[in-house]
Each structure stands twice: as C-alpha cells, then as structure tokens.
Structure to design on (295 residues):
C-alpha cells in the first residue's frame, strides 16, 4: 500500500502511524490499570448486587460478536480505500460506525438495567470498578464512532482517496485496539465471575 | 530503498480477514459454551484466558497488521503491553487477589 500524503520520520516510518502506535501503547497502561483495579477489588464488595447476580452473559455475548464484526468491517473499509473503491469504502466505514453505535446501544441497555436493579457506581466496589472500566471503554468506542463518521463525511466530500489511506489505517488501529480491550474485558469481567 | 518500502508491507487479503473473523466467532462461541458447562469449572480460568489471548493475538497480528508491519511498531506496542501485564500481576499479588497476600 502506498500513502502519497504520508510523512516519514528518520526511521523511515510514517510519523502519524508511529505516533498512533505510541498512543496505543499508552492506552495499554491505562486499561491495564483499570482492569487491575477491577481484579484487585473483585469479590470484596460488602453488599450486593454481585457480578454473578447481575451480569447478563447472553446479551454481552451478542455485543461482543457485534464489536468483533465491526473490526472485520474496518479492515474491509481500509482495503476498499486503499484500492480507491469509494462505494465499498463508504459502505464498510458506515457499517463499522453502525456496529459501533449498536455496541453503545447494548451498553446503554446494560447500564440502565443495572441501575434499575440497584447497581450504580456508588453502590459497592463492584459497581465502582465495573462502571469505571466499562464506561471508559464505552467512551473510547464513542470516540471511535466519531472518527469513523468523520472519515465517512470526508469520503462523501471526495477527500478520502487512496492517498489518504493512512488516515483510515490509524483510525482502524484505534478501532481494533478498542476491540482487543473488549476481548479482555469480556473474559475477565463477564466470564470469569 | 525508499522510506515507504522500509515502513510498508503488503496487507493480507479479504480471504484472510474473513477467515480470521470466522475463527474469532468460533472462539467466542466456545468461550460462552465453556462458561455454561459445569464440567469445565475447575479449568475455566486457564481455558478462557488462553482463548482470550488467542483472540487478542489474531486481531493484533492480522487486523492491526502487526505481523506484517515494521518491527518498531511491534516493539512500541509489546513493551507497554508487557509492562501493563506485569503491573497487573504485581498488584494482584500485592493485594492478595491470588490468595497469597495479606
């Protein structure tokens, strides 16, 4: 793949991509600390609701599937932009953003149902760590959706040709990172209760 | 060699992306299945963590193209990831999450 508009560092690597990988590295530490905090306080709540009582595995499995498929749509969007296929680029970018919004919808449903069942961020240690971790992840998904919609608008403006594929690639890196963080959260928080 | 050639490598094709998606889907189904089967309870944690690590690796290697990209990208991602993992394990030991601390 060639990126005519790309700028290169003294390493010969694209500076935008290099900076984005460094950002993702820092995000590893952010989510590492949030997941650690959840695990350290796991099972130490003095009152309910507990994860076993409240987590809805079937619903979260569907939202996990949704996010995994959004990653597939994202790589297909990058491939379409790289080969200059505007129609499919728009389709896959739109699909990725839509699947991201669906994930956020699932999270909204989960959060509101938990609050109705008596679990808020102030209820117990589980509530505090759970909402902080999954809420931070959800905020990242929301930012990702905004980035995707921006790319979609740029595409409709005719400003997202193959020479701008690097912008789609770094957005894809962010999106896939959000996906891999959820892979860990789904296992650690939902399945290992 | 131009800078472009040093930093860019061919990305996998659509077939590979679809195959990876299929594997991710199958692993997710297996994860949820294992969660509901009582016989797996004693080995639930190692099995689920292994499956999760495989999914993580597949997305990072094929969708984030780390398998095909420059080694410096791998380094920039892997070092903080290992640091985060080390800090996480250390904190869990420190706070007795493994049943060994205070």
């Amino acid at each position: 793949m060639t990126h005519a508009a790309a700028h290169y560092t003294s390493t010969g690597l694209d500076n935008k991509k290099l900076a984005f990988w460094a950002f993702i590295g820092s995000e590893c530490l952010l989510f590492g600390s949030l997941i650690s905090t959840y695990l350290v306080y796991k099972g130490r709540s003095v009152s309910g609701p507990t994860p076993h009582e409240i987590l809805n595995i079937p619903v979260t499995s569907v939202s996990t599937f949704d996010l995994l498929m959004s990653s597939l749509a994202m790589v297909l969007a990058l491939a379409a932009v790289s080969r200059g296929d505007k129609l499919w680029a728009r389709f896959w970018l739109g699909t990725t953003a839509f699947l991201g919004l669906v994930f956020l919808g699932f999270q909204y449903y989960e959060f509101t149902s938990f609050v109705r069942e008596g679990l808020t961020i102030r209820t117990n240690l589980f509530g505090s760590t759970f909402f902080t971790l999954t809420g931070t992840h959800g905020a990242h998904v929301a930012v990702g959706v905004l980035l995707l919609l921006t790319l979609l608008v740029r595409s409709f403006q005719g400003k997202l040709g193959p020479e701008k594929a690097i912008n789609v690639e770094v957005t894809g890196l962010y999106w896939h990172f959000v996906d891999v963080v959820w892979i860990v959260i789904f296992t650690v928080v939902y399945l290992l209760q | 060699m131009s800078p472009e050639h040093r930093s860019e490598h061919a990305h996998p094709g659509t077939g590979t992306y679809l195959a990876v998606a299929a594997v991710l889907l199958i692993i997710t189904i297996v994860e949820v299945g294992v969660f509901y089967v009582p016989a797996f309870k004693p080995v639930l944690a190692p099995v689920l963590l292994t499956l999760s690590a495989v999914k993580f690796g597949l997305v990072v290697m094929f969708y984030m193209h780390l398998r095909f990209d420059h080694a410096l990208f791998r380094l920039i991602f892997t070092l903080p990831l290992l640091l985060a993992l080390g800090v996480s394990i250390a904190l869990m030991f420190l706070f007795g999450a493994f049943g060994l601390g205070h």
